[in-house]
Amino acid sequence: MTDVARAASLRADPLRERVQRHVGRGARSPIGLWFRDIDRVLLLIAMLLVALGLVAVAAASPATAVRYSSGAVKIPAMAYFWRQALWVVLSFPVMIGVSMLPATAARRFALGGAAVFLVLLMATPLIGVEINGARRWIGVGISQFQPSEFLKPLFIVATAWILSFRAKDPHLPVVPITGALTALVGCVLMLQPDFGQTIIFGSVWLTLLMIAGISTRIMALLGALGAGGVVAAYVFYDTARIRIDSFLFPDPNAVHTDSYQTDMAHAVLTAGGITGTGPGGGRIKFKLPEAHTDYIYAVVGEEFGLIACAAIALLFLALVVRVFVRLLDEEDAFRLLAAAGLAVQLGLQALINMAVNTGIAPSKGMTLPFISYGGSSMIALSLGMGLLLAFTRRNPYLTRSPYGTRWNG
Predict the structure, then answer these.
(1) What transmembrane ranges does the database entry give (predicted)?
(2) Cα–Cα distance, 153 to 346 (Å, whole number)
(3) How many Cβ atoms sit within 10 Å of the Cβ of residue 151?
């Protein structure tokens, strides 16, 4: 098609002309630049996970409504679905807005946010709201939020920024600095108590050290210290000991223990077989505690089958693989570490949740990213995904290679 014919075609279709002007190759608007640079495959994976999460919450909402209804107070069957839909509407602009930030602005935003939420995390054991024996939330009016959920992506970016200085000077003490900060976060989390989040922070830190090129001798030493920390947690930390004991030595007569929850989750997960009972057909889910949060993966298995569970697992795997493939030729140490850390956080949290639901790991009270119900959690995840999209943005007309970056227009 000639240029004259193309121009005539655009004039004949005003909608197409507006789209071409805002997101086309020659677009110069902020939206056009963002759409040109963003990893659209990564964005699509995130949107698919959110959409599947809404379907999963819709399936779990009736069971949760029945469990939390009492006396004259009857919770509508789809109440949790509508609340989650509202949180998704509020969270999506957060993800898009953060993803539009330049890498430098996103880094500064994350550093400032990490400082704020670290202070809030340290204040949680003192001023937090206690729910089910844990003090992990801070009350704000009629709702609560969990500072550790917001701190995770922000702290990962801050840790990546500190470790990136090693590329300029290998002698800088970046390992002890980041290790001390991670240990501080871990100690505060153990006071809440929140053993699962402690594992996430520690594991991501070790992953970032490996990517940063820390020597194998130091990594072996840290691995030994980590194993010793788990043993110490079992000996001195009641929450860890109870959960490990109930997992390794379950009491078949106990009810509403961690063993009961994981056993029931496994039963719900496999009740639907390969294809599931169909939407609304699940019945065992009504016996499952926290069906809309920690054990929503089991609800998906009952109503939509093991095929749907496998599809969700593959989406998380695709997210992590996509990020690492995109980072293969990344030359900026900070962007490499930040994006890799954020991807590992999402993948590891999903892996732990699935392991608990399938009965191969003890209960940790950890939700499935983008799938489980939760307002502040959805906003925090959208914030982290927005940072991940911001740090993986690329100009498509620049070709990267080991010999530098060149224009490919």
Answers:
(1) 41-64, 85-103, 109-129, 150-167, 173-192, 204-237, 304-324, 336-356, 368-391
(2) 9
(3) 26
Per-residue pLDDT of the chain (409 residues; tens, 9 = 90+): 555 555 555 455 555 555 455 544 545 677 778 888 889 999 999 999 999 999 999 999 998 898 888 777 788 889 999 999 999 999 999 999 999 999 999 999 999 999 999 999 998 888 878 776 677 878 776 678 889 999 999 999 999 999 999 888 888 899 999 999 999 999 898 888 788 888 899 999 999 999 988 877 877 887 777 777 777 767 766 666 766 666 666 665 555 555 677 778 888 888 888 988 888 888 888 888 888 888 999 999 999 999 999 999 999 999 999 999 999 888 899 999 999 999 999 999 999 999 989 888 777 778 899 999 988 899 999 999 999 999 998 766 555 554 444 444 4
> Residue 333 and residue 211: Cα distance in Å, rounded?
10
- Closest residue by Cα to residue 302 from 289, 293, 291: 291
Domain count, the chain: 1
Helix, coil or strand: residue 335? helix
Q: Token pair for residue 284?
A: 């065992």
Q: Domain for residue 390, yes or no? A: yes
Q: Can you read off the two tokens belonging to residue 115? A: 């400082």
Do residues 330 and 164 touch, judged by C-beta distance below 8 A?
no
Tokens of 185: 């976060």
Task: Kindly report the pTM of this predicted structure.
Answer: 0.85
Grouping H, G, I as helix, E, B as strand and the rest as coil, residue 30 is helix
Q: How far is CA 206 from CA 175, 179, 354, in A?
A: 10, 9, 22
User: Is there a domain that residue 325 lies in?
Assistant: yes
- Domain assignment present for 160: yes
The token pair at 198 is: 């402690």
Could you tell me the two tokens for 126? 């003192």
* Residue 17, in any domain of the structure: no
Residue ranges making up the domain that contains 267: 31-407
Angle CA 305–370–91, to nearest 5: 145
d(CA 301, CA 278): 10
